[in-house]
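User: My collaborator sent over this chain with a note saying "see what the structure looks like." That's all I know about it. Can you take a look?
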Amino acid sequence: MTTTAEVYSLGLRGDRVWLEGTRPRDLPVAEWTRDHLDGDQTLLERCVGPTLDVGCGPGRLAAALLARRILALGIDVNTEAVAQARARGAAVLQRDVFSPLPREGAWRHVLLADGNIGIGGDPIRLLLRCRELLAPGGTVLLDLQGTGAHVRTHRLRLRAEGVASDWFHWSSLPTGALPAIAGACGFSLVGVWRSAERWQAELGVSSHWHASPR
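Assistant: Without extra context I'll predict from the sequence alone. Here is the result:
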């Protein structure tokens, strides 16, 4: 058995990597290594202050924000992704989103691009963590998994030629499920839109909200 990080690193270096689980499909790692993807612009233009890019991968968005003179920090758990992001000029830490992070409670925006709302297979836990990271009035910007009404959590693993990773959980969050999930985490829905072939949204911190025990 090979770790998920090791198989994902193969994809970052150019090997074909695909997902096994609900339905086999290629992981679009080659796209994430580009400098720009269609639909990035609508996320980037909404980042008007210090931005934390969660699961930044090889750093295209963090680097693009720095080029716009926006304070931006990427975080990713994968060694190869961090190395590629730094080579691109992005400021990046090899860190898990649930570990201690710089500027907690002071970020203007948190980015969950490329489906990273699925990290850990628990969107509520992840959004509650984002709320801790944000300053008052801050927002989360995210890509969604198309239209639909229900969050789906999948048991997946990565596979490359001759190797397979350990299994992990990942969630997909569609547009119809977002309002309820956002409200449960103390966010209001600022907007949902489609850019290129991507569904995206912005969530704002709600000032009148008190956490309930999970």
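A starting point for your reply to your collaborator: The two ends are 34 Å apart (CA to CA).
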